[in-house]
Amino acid sequence: xxxxxxxxxxxxxxxxxxxxxxxxxxxxxxxxxxxxxxxxxxxxxxxxxxxxxxxxxxxxxxxxxxxxxxxxxxxxxxxxxxxxxxxxxxxxxxxxxxxxxxxxxxxxxxxxxxxxxxxxxxxxxxxxxxxxxxxxxxxxxxxxxxxxxxxxxxxxxxxxxxxxxxxxxx
Length: 170
Description:
Number of helices: 4
Strand content: 25-35%
Number of domains: 1
CATH class: Alpha Beta
């Protein structure tokens, strides 16, 4: 994949991005990373582990595919999806706040894009929230759509976003 299509933000020394070898390893990695994020950042309102449990390969008919980003063997980001309709449907993205606005998310998407002809996502399942002291949590839908467009995703007819491999990339 030609990385010049995207704007690279801050570089992360020692960053290694890969696909977890088995679905079980992927779910285990996601569960441990989410728990660590919930402990290190208790005010961020991270989702509960029930979300991760719903992707347990032993309990689900769709097998999860997990990509992880690590720095010196410490997980700093995960991207999870399932194979669906001949492509990849992304469900979960989590990045350690210290590594936001770096190349990490771009590298996770590039790894996912290198394994699939097309990728779908519901940007509101992979949403950005902000806290307003008077109004509580809100989903920033406009910001979310712009964010994923940076990685080559386009709005589709049903409100989700889609990325398709260009013929020249094959």
